């Protein structure tokens, strides 16, 4: 009886270990098949698109993802001395200002001057406006959870 119990435990342990190795191998294969990405704002292969008309003097380039799908990363460029009207997004925005100085005002909050290298978080649905100051252009890295949208509030 004791031998049978030992064989059963040993068999269960062997199956667990082998399945664990199999799962690890599958996960590693999946992760390793995706290519890494490295871009700078001056890369010649980036395709810059004109932003919607209510964002004059602005352009964007998609770094990773699809503009109509969740989990999008992009660079957004605002020319010097350009105002961005009040607007909202369905997605929270996680941003890093790469170049320039940006004046940003979120509804109900004081205006802030954001300098290159600064991180900024914008809650979904919260109206905000901005102005790229004369030290521009202002280039933002923006990460979105939901598909891209911009809805003017003015």
From TrEMBL:
Keyword list, A-Z: Signal
Matches recorded under Pfam families: Cupin_2 (PF07883)
Top-level taxon of origin: Bacteria
Span of the signal peptide: 1-27
Cupin type-2 domain boundaries: 75-141
Protein name (Swiss-Prot/TrEMBL): Cupin
Native species: Confluentibacter flavum
């Amino acid at each position: 009886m004791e031998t049978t119990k030992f064989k059963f435990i040993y068999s269960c342990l062997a199956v667990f270990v082998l399945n664990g190795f199999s799962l690890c191998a599958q996960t590693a294969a999946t992760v390793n098949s995706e290519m890494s990405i490295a871009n700078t704002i001056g890369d010649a292969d980036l395709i810059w698109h004109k932003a919607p008309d209510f964002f004059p003097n602005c352009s964007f380039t998609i770094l990773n993802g699809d503009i109509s799908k969740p989990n999008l990363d992009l660079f957004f460029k605002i020319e010097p001395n350009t105002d961005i009207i009040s607007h909202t997004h369905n997605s929270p925005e996680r941003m890093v200002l790469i170049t320039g100085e940006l004046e940003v005002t979120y509804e109900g909050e004081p205006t802030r001057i954001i300098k290159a290298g600064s991180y900024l978080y914008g809650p979904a649905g919260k109206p905000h406006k901005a102005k790229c100051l004369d030290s521009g252009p202002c280039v933002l890295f923006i990460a979105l959870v939901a598909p891209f949208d911009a809805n003017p509030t003015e």
